[in-house]
Amino acid sequence: MLFLFIAVLVVGLIAIPFLARLARPEAARRLAFALAGSGAIIGWASLAWLVFAPTYRTETVTLSTGSQAASVTSASRSLLEVGLAPLTIIVLLGVCAAFAAILLGAFEQMRAPLGRGCRLMLAGTVPLVAIGLVSWGVAPVQPAIALSAFATITAFASSGKSLRG
């Protein structure tokens, strides 16, 4: 999964700037906004699934005399029911905020092409890509991270800016 994530990011880093420069700047900005919006929606839905869906399975075995299994009880629990560490809560809130920053930056970029939207999108994308590369726990969010990274690349390409300014 990690290799697929890296491959998709590399292909996007190579292909999207060329495609965005071929399109009209307005169309590329609308594409960046659509990518950011779909990335944010998919990302928030994936995070909700990670927290609230029954992804953990517990089994309780009752033994009778002679070490025979008398009954087996199984239940599914969500991450919220299992318990969230404070650091996990901070990371999840940070990921939610990063998706919001990318979406707001794309909106700002669409409204004022030479404004601060690109930098706001970059500020949201960098932590998302870093978390996506180092954490297996957010694997369901990786498609949304890739869409958000593509939105940021498209916004920079459509504005004629480079990552250096």
Q: Per DSSP, what share of the residues sits in E-state strands of 2 or more residues?
A: 5-15%
The helicity comes to 55-70%
Which blocks of ≥5 consecutive residues have pLDDT under 50? none
Instruction: Give, in order, the helices and strands.
Output: HHEEHHHH
Tally of individual domains: 1
Furnish the topology, listing elements before pairings:
Elements: H1 2-22, H2 25-52, E1 56-63, E2 69-77, H3 79-82, H4 86-111, H5 117-134, H6 142-159
Helix pairs in contact: 1-6, 2-4, 2-6, 4-5, 4-6, 5-6
What's this model, at a glance?
The protein contains 6 helices and 2 strands; from the N terminus they run ααββαααα.
What can you see in these coordinates?
The chain has 165 residues and is mainly α. The chain has one domain. Helices cover 70% and strands 10% of the residues. The protein has six helices and two strands; from the N terminus they run H-H-E-E-H-H-H-H. It has a two-stranded antiparallel sheet. It starts with a helix and ends in a 6-residue tail after the last helix. The model has no long low-confidence stretch (mean pLDDT 79).
Keywords for this structure?
elongated; 6 helices; mainly alpha; two-stranded antiparallel sheet; 165 residues; single chain
